[in-house]
Design a protein that fits this description.
158 residues, alpha/beta, five-stranded mixed β-sheet, globular, Nucleotidyltransferase, domain 5
Length: 158
Amino acid sequence: MAGSYRFRFVEHNKSHQFFGSNKSVLIRATLIDGHGKVILDEYCQPTSKIIFMRTQCHGIFQWEIIDKQSDEDLIRKIQEIIKDKIIIGHSLKYDLEVLKVSPPETKIRDTAERFSWTFRKHIPSLKELAKNKLGIEIQTGTHDSKEDALAALKIFVS
């Protein structure tokens, strides 16, 4: 079954890189199935130190992830769910790196790549695609992983 899988990360900058480690840290993951039904929406506590929380972007505060499952536990859970599934999302490269998975290209449906030619010389943001392909506004405040996952799925099937 295909599904849109969107993962929420604490990011240092728009390229999803972190001080020193060059990696993002998972703090929330949302998975929806091909019908838009949420099958997982969970927070986790990263095992590595958070350098810059970016609450203003994703709306998650540090206190919300205290005493949550470890990122390693959540990553294992996600790996099991997405195993052998078609993965639909936006700019999946970074998400898949954090999840330590390398699915075959035949299982990846990335809206950033699929529609890159429609926006001149840059890769369109999920927000741009939602506006242009669906006529809806998303990410008007903080980013919400459920909203992002559903938008990516709708864009892909449109």
